[in-house]
Amino acid sequence: MAIDPSNILLTGRVAVVTGGGEGIGRGIAEGLAAFGASVAIWERNPDTCASAAEAIGALGIVTDVRDSEQVDVAVARTATEVGIPSILVNNAGGVFSSPLLDTSENGWDALYRSNLRHVLLCTQRVARRLVNAGQPGSIINVTSIEGARAAPGYAAYAAAKAGVINYTKTAALELAPHKIRVNALAPDLTVTEGLLRMSPDGLSPNMGHMIPMGRPGHVDEMAGAAVFLASDMSSYITGQTIHVDGGTQAASGWYHNPQTGDYQLGPG
To answer: Is 157 assigned a catalytic role?
Structure first.
Protein backbone atom coordinates (compact mmCIF):
# COMPACT_ATOMS: atom_id res chain seq x y z
CA MET A 1 0.00 0.00 0.00
CA ALA A 2 1.44 3.34 -1.04
CA ILE A 3 2.01 6.04 1.55
CA ASP A 4 -0.83 8.54 1.55
CA PRO A 5 0.18 12.13 2.42
CA SER A 6 -3.06 12.45 4.38
CA ASN A 7 -1.71 9.94 6.91
CA ILE A 8 0.21 12.75 8.58
CA LEU A 9 -2.99 14.66 9.31
CA LEU A 10 -4.55 14.59 12.78
CA THR A 11 -7.98 15.86 11.78
CA GLY A 12 -10.73 14.73 14.12
CA ARG A 13 -8.35 13.69 16.90
CA VAL A 14 -8.07 15.16 20.37
CA ALA A 15 -4.61 15.80 21.78
CA VAL A 16 -3.53 16.63 25.32
CA VAL A 17 -0.21 18.36 25.95
CA THR A 18 0.93 18.68 29.55
CA GLY A 19 3.10 21.66 30.41
CA GLY A 20 1.94 23.22 27.16
CA GLY A 21 2.02 26.82 28.35
CA GLU A 22 5.43 27.58 26.90
CA GLY A 23 8.65 26.05 25.63
CA ILE A 24 8.70 22.61 24.02
CA GLY A 25 5.16 21.88 25.21
CA ARG A 26 3.70 24.94 23.55
CA GLY A 27 5.65 24.23 20.37
CA ILE A 28 4.25 20.70 20.26
CA ALA A 29 0.72 21.94 20.99
CA GLU A 30 0.98 24.39 18.10
CA GLY A 31 2.29 21.68 15.80
CA LEU A 32 -0.48 19.23 16.63
CA ALA A 33 -3.11 21.94 16.12
CA ALA A 34 -1.55 22.92 12.78
CA PHE A 35 -2.03 19.35 11.55
CA GLY A 36 -5.69 19.29 12.51
CA ALA A 37 -5.89 18.06 16.10
CA SER A 38 -8.17 19.61 18.68
CA VAL A 39 -5.77 20.41 21.51
CA ALA A 40 -6.19 20.61 25.27
CA ILE A 41 -3.35 22.18 27.24
CA TRP A 42 -2.88 21.03 30.83
CA GLU A 43 -0.65 23.61 32.48
CA ARG A 44 -0.30 24.62 36.13
CA ASN A 45 0.63 28.26 35.39
CA PRO A 46 -2.71 30.07 34.84
CA ASP A 47 -1.16 32.90 32.81
CA THR A 48 0.79 30.81 30.31
CA CYS A 49 -2.05 28.31 30.13
CA ALA A 50 -4.51 31.02 29.12
CA SER A 51 -2.19 32.78 26.66
CA ALA A 52 -1.14 29.58 24.91
CA ALA A 53 -4.70 28.30 24.69
CA GLU A 54 -5.92 31.59 23.22
CA ALA A 55 -3.09 31.78 20.68
CA ILE A 56 -3.52 28.19 19.52
CA GLY A 57 -7.29 27.97 19.77
CA ALA A 58 -6.97 25.21 22.35
CA LEU A 59 -8.80 24.27 25.51
CA GLY A 60 -6.70 25.46 28.45
CA ILE A 61 -7.13 23.64 31.76
CA VAL A 62 -5.10 24.81 34.74
CA THR A 63 -3.77 21.51 36.07
CA ASP A 64 -0.93 20.35 38.26
CA VAL A 65 -0.32 16.95 36.70
CA ARG A 66 1.60 15.82 39.78
CA ASP A 67 -1.77 15.64 41.56
CA SER A 68 -3.91 12.63 40.65
CA GLU A 69 -7.18 14.34 41.55
CA GLN A 70 -6.40 17.27 39.27
CA VAL A 71 -5.49 14.87 36.47
CA ASP A 72 -8.82 13.08 36.90
CA VAL A 73 -10.66 16.41 36.63
CA ALA A 74 -8.67 17.42 33.55
CA VAL A 75 -9.34 14.10 31.80
CA ALA A 76 -13.06 14.33 32.50
CA ARG A 77 -13.30 17.94 31.38
CA THR A 78 -11.30 17.29 28.21
CA ALA A 79 -13.51 14.33 27.31
CA THR A 80 -16.67 16.34 27.92
CA GLU A 81 -15.66 19.56 26.16
CA VAL A 82 -13.48 18.29 23.30
CA GLY A 83 -13.62 14.50 23.23
CA ILE A 84 -11.65 11.50 24.46
CA PRO A 85 -7.98 12.27 23.84
CA SER A 86 -6.30 9.79 21.51
CA ILE A 87 -2.99 11.70 21.62
CA LEU A 88 -1.22 12.42 24.88
CA VAL A 89 2.07 14.29 25.15
CA ASN A 90 3.59 13.98 28.63
CA ASN A 91 5.81 17.04 28.43
CA ALA A 92 5.62 18.62 31.90
CA GLY A 93 8.86 18.56 33.88
CA GLY A 94 11.37 20.53 35.87
CA VAL A 95 15.00 20.53 36.90
CA PHE A 96 17.32 21.99 39.48
CA SER A 97 20.83 21.12 40.54
CA SER A 98 20.99 18.11 42.88
CA PRO A 99 24.57 16.91 43.52
CA LEU A 100 24.55 13.36 44.84
CA LEU A 101 26.05 14.16 48.26
CA ASP A 102 23.72 17.11 48.81
CA THR A 103 20.39 15.84 47.51
CA SER A 104 17.73 15.78 50.21
CA GLU A 105 14.84 13.36 50.33
CA ASN A 106 12.48 16.24 49.59
CA GLY A 107 14.61 17.28 46.62
CA TRP A 108 14.64 13.75 45.25
CA ASP A 109 10.88 13.42 45.68
CA ALA A 110 10.26 16.79 44.03
CA LEU A 111 12.26 15.85 40.93
CA TYR A 112 10.59 12.44 40.76
CA ARG A 113 7.14 14.01 40.97
CA SER A 114 7.97 16.65 38.38
CA ASN A 115 9.50 14.32 35.82
CA LEU A 116 8.22 10.76 36.28
CA ARG A 117 5.19 10.39 38.55
CA HIS A 118 2.92 12.43 36.30
CA VAL A 119 3.87 10.27 33.30
CA LEU A 120 2.21 7.32 35.04
CA LEU A 121 -0.79 9.34 36.20
CA CYS A 122 -1.60 10.89 32.82
CA THR A 123 -0.81 7.79 30.76
CA GLN A 124 -2.94 5.62 33.00
CA ARG A 125 -5.95 7.93 33.01
CA VAL A 126 -5.95 8.57 29.27
CA ALA A 127 -5.23 4.94 28.39
CA ARG A 128 -8.14 3.75 30.54
CA ARG A 129 -10.50 6.01 28.60
CA LEU A 130 -9.18 4.71 25.28
CA VAL A 131 -9.38 1.06 26.32
CA ASN A 132 -12.93 1.46 27.61
CA ALA A 133 -13.93 3.16 24.36
CA GLY A 134 -12.08 0.62 22.20
CA GLN A 135 -10.08 3.40 20.52
CA PRO A 136 -6.43 3.39 19.42
CA GLY A 137 -4.04 6.10 20.56
CA SER A 138 -0.54 7.49 20.63
CA ILE A 139 1.25 8.50 23.82
CA ILE A 140 4.44 10.54 23.58
CA ASN A 141 6.68 11.05 26.60
CA VAL A 142 9.20 13.88 26.56
CA THR A 143 12.35 12.72 28.30
CA SER A 144 15.87 14.16 27.87
CA ILE A 145 19.31 13.20 26.65
CA GLU A 146 20.17 13.23 30.37
CA GLY A 147 18.08 10.10 30.70
CA ALA A 148 20.54 8.25 28.48
CA ARG A 149 23.86 9.57 29.80
CA ALA A 150 25.42 10.53 33.10
CA ALA A 151 24.56 14.01 34.38
CA PRO A 152 26.93 15.03 37.20
CA GLY A 153 25.17 17.42 39.56
CA TYR A 154 21.75 16.32 38.36
CA ALA A 155 21.51 12.72 39.57
CA ALA A 156 17.87 12.79 40.62
CA TYR A 157 16.72 14.51 37.41
CA ALA A 158 18.69 12.11 35.22
CA ALA A 159 17.34 9.11 37.12
CA ALA A 160 13.77 10.31 36.60
CA LYS A 161 14.34 10.90 32.89
CA ALA A 162 15.93 7.46 32.55
CA GLY A 163 12.81 6.13 34.24
CA VAL A 164 10.70 7.77 31.55
CA ILE A 165 12.65 5.90 28.86
CA ASN A 166 12.17 2.53 30.52
CA TYR A 167 8.56 3.25 31.42
CA THR A 168 7.96 4.04 27.74
CA LYS A 169 9.17 0.57 26.74
CA THR A 170 7.07 -1.25 29.32
CA ALA A 171 3.94 0.80 28.72
CA ALA A 172 4.33 0.18 24.98
CA LEU A 173 4.23 -3.58 25.53
CA GLU A 174 1.31 -3.49 27.93
CA LEU A 175 -0.78 -1.20 25.74
CA ALA A 176 0.10 -2.70 22.33
CA PRO A 177 -2.80 -5.20 22.47
CA HIS A 178 -5.12 -2.20 22.82
CA LYS A 179 -3.60 -0.49 19.74
CA ILE A 180 -2.14 2.28 21.88
CA ARG A 181 1.43 3.17 20.93
CA VAL A 182 3.88 4.67 23.42
CA ASN A 183 7.10 6.42 22.37
CA ALA A 184 9.42 9.08 23.73
CA LEU A 185 11.27 12.14 22.48
CA ALA A 186 14.67 13.03 23.95
CA PRO A 187 15.85 16.58 23.28
CA ASP A 188 19.21 18.08 24.08
CA LEU A 189 19.68 21.86 24.18
CA THR A 190 16.53 23.48 22.79
CA VAL A 191 15.79 27.19 22.53
CA THR A 192 12.86 27.95 24.82
CA GLU A 193 11.61 30.94 26.78
CA GLY A 194 13.20 29.48 29.90
CA LEU A 195 16.60 29.16 28.22
CA LEU A 196 16.40 32.72 26.92
CA ARG A 197 15.49 34.02 30.38
CA MET A 198 18.67 32.44 31.72
CA SER A 199 20.68 34.06 28.90
CA PRO A 200 19.64 37.74 28.90
CA ASP A 201 22.71 38.68 26.87
CA GLY A 202 21.96 36.10 24.20
CA LEU A 203 22.96 32.48 23.73
CA SER A 204 26.67 31.78 23.71
CA PRO A 205 28.01 30.72 20.30
CA ASN A 206 30.01 28.05 22.14
CA MET A 207 26.79 26.13 22.79
CA GLY A 208 26.94 24.73 19.29
CA HIS A 209 30.37 23.12 19.72
CA MET A 210 28.92 20.22 21.74
CA ILE A 211 26.24 19.50 19.12
CA PRO A 212 27.25 17.87 15.81
CA MET A 213 24.78 20.01 13.85
CA GLY A 214 26.39 23.07 15.41
CA ARG A 215 23.34 24.73 16.96
CA PRO A 216 20.63 24.29 19.58
CA GLY A 217 17.32 22.81 18.54
CA HIS A 218 14.06 24.70 18.02
CA VAL A 219 10.71 23.80 19.55
CA ASP A 220 9.27 23.40 16.04
CA GLU A 221 11.74 20.58 15.43
CA MET A 222 10.44 18.79 18.51
CA ALA A 223 6.92 19.46 17.26
CA GLY A 224 7.70 17.85 13.91
CA ALA A 225 8.81 14.64 15.60
CA ALA A 226 5.74 14.71 17.85
CA VAL A 227 3.36 15.13 14.91
CA PHE A 228 5.03 12.15 13.20
CA LEU A 229 4.65 9.95 16.28
CA ALA A 230 1.05 11.07 16.79
CA SER A 231 0.07 10.34 13.20
CA ASP A 232 -0.54 7.19 11.18
CA MET A 233 2.83 7.73 9.50
CA SER A 234 4.34 6.03 12.55
CA SER A 235 1.69 3.33 12.91
CA TYR A 236 4.24 0.52 13.42
CA ILE A 237 6.52 2.37 15.85
CA THR A 238 6.15 1.80 19.57
CA GLY A 239 8.43 1.55 22.58
CA GLN A 240 11.06 3.78 20.98
CA THR A 241 12.94 6.87 22.15
CA ILE A 242 13.81 9.26 19.34
CA HIS A 243 16.68 11.61 20.11
CA VAL A 244 15.81 14.99 18.62
CA ASP A 245 19.19 16.42 19.56
CA GLY A 246 21.18 17.39 16.50
CA GLY A 247 23.32 14.27 16.87
CA THR A 248 24.48 14.67 20.48
CA GLN A 249 23.52 11.17 21.55
CA ALA A 250 25.30 9.67 18.56
CA ALA A 251 28.40 11.79 19.27
CA SER A 252 28.98 10.10 22.65
CA GLY A 253 31.47 12.73 23.80
CA TRP A 254 32.89 13.89 20.48
CA TYR A 255 32.57 17.63 19.94
CA HIS A 256 33.73 20.38 17.62
CA ASN A 257 37.02 22.00 18.59
CA PRO A 258 36.15 25.71 19.00
CA GLN A 259 39.31 26.78 17.15
CA THR A 260 39.53 24.29 14.28
CA GLY A 261 35.98 22.97 13.99
CA ASP A 262 37.38 19.44 13.85
CA TYR A 263 35.90 16.69 15.98
CA GLN A 264 37.79 15.71 19.09
CA LEU A 265 37.00 13.41 22.00
CA GLY A 266 37.27 15.19 25.33
CA PRO A 267 39.38 18.29 26.07
CA GLY A 268 42.43 18.78 23.88
So the answer is: yes
